[in-house]
Amino acid sequence: MSLARPQELPYSPISRATIQENVYGRIREMILNGDIEPGRTVTVSSLSEAFGVSAMPVREAMHRLVAEKALTVVAGRSVGIPTLSAARLEDLRRVRCEIEGMATEWAAAAITPADLRHLDELIAIMEAAKAVKDRARYVPANRDFHFTIYKAAGSPALMAIIESLWLQIGPYINLLKETDNWTSANRDHKAIHTALLHGDPVAAGQALRDDISEAAKALGRFLSK
Questions:
Q1: CATH label, 17-80, candidates 1.10.357.140, 1.10.150.450, 1.10.10.10, 1.20.1050.80
Q2: What are the tens digits of pLDDT across the range 113-130?
Q3: What is the rounded CA–CA span in Å between residue 131 and residue 112?
Q4: Which of 45, 69, 82, 170 has the most CB atoms less than 10 A away?
Q5: CB 64 within 8 A of CB 203
Q6: 93/33 Cα distance (integer angstroms)
Q7: Cβ distance 158 to 170 under 8 Å?
Q8: What is the secondary structure of 162-221 as a DSSP string?
Q9: In terms of pTM, does the model score above 0.90?
């Protein structure tokens, strides 16, 4: 009777890319949620400590986000949210209206009943959050609402562009808690939902563009103060 031989396993080292992607995703989520506020800075060491990782994956994630114009180097090893001038806000508004409006129009022909139910649930969440001015609950629900629609468009290429645009405007959307944009946004969300429910791409795209434009106007007025 021969002795059992050790099992030979394929060489498969654990990649550092997993940690890098997780760190990138965490910082990205912080930007989108407004956890890194405009006018404030963060450092490699502070994020490394918060995430419990070494400085390397944090530094690499920051480099990616600076290249994507989601962050900007402020001084030394500190980074912050890029300044949003009136010209840049208008540029982002115009591009978002075109790109996100197109995605919404495409989604009208492909969105599922399950997606529409989810949008309805998110509208209810945003209505409840508006009533008590709970921006922490409103912001992720608003993003989920929009991206449920954009995913339904079925275009990874278009989605990549939209994600880049949201990284640039996301931190400032959180500032709308100081404005009356809650009411107009929820009105537009209901109009988008109704148009999608009826399979009307033109009305859905227009309501989406109205939502973006109203938010840009409110943000412009707030920043001008």
A1: 1.10.10.10
A2: 999 999 999 999 999 998
A3: 29
A4: 170
A5: no
A6: 19
A7: no
A8: HHHHHHHHHHHHGGGGGSSHHHHHHHHHHHHHHHHHTT-HHHHHHHHHHHHHHHHHHHHH
A9: no
